């Protein structure tokens, strides 16, 4: 498995394929164009990575480092056709390696309660539930 930092617009185009994948029902954000992704990762404290297996992209992850510099929130997307094949586990290992390189001592994420596969993976990787969150909205 190879882990490559987002460095140019072509990388942002590749990342957008994962962020805009309609088959992944647990993406917790709006679709993003390559231009929006490029702008996002041009800001300080945001780091994006593409993970490939034999030169074929299988997933992406990002780290958003806090102002303190010692903790980060992350997001991870494994391509739908690569799910259930161990890639999530390997990507998590790569993510943790990259966080350590940035001297981050705490990493965290938000996960949908119904995303049982992901929760099981995070439990296996020794992540602990911090608290439950209720999100409310009203359409006007």
What does this molecule look like?
Helices cover 31% and strands 24% of the residues. It has one domain: Gcn5-related N-acetyltransferase (GNAT) (Aminopeptidase, 3-Layer(aba) Sandwich). By secondary structure, it is of the alpha+beta class. The relative contact order is 0.16.
The biggest beta sheet is recorded as: 5 strands, mixed
* Contiguous helical run count: 4
Beta content comes to 15-25%
Strand/helix succession:
EHHEEEHEH
Give the overall form: globular
So, the CATH homologous superfamily?
A: Gcn5-related N-acetyltransferase (GNAT)
CATH fold name: Aminopeptidase
Instruction: Report how far the terminal alpha carbons are from each other.
Output: 46 Å
Number of domains: 1
In short:
31% of the residues lie in helices and 24% in strands. The chain is of the alpha+beta class and 140 residues long. It has a single domain, classed as 3-Layer(aba) Sandwich (Aminopeptidase).
Write the layout of secondary structure elements.
Elements: E1 2-5, H1 9-19, H2 34-41, E2 46-53, E3 56-65, E4 71-78, H3 87-101, E5 106-108, H4 116-124
Parallel strand pairs: 4-5
Antiparallel strand pairs: 1-2, 2-3, 3-4
Helix pairs in contact: 1-2
Observed structural traits:
140 residues; alpha+beta; Aminopeptidase; five-stranded mixed beta sheet; 4 helices; 31% helix; globular
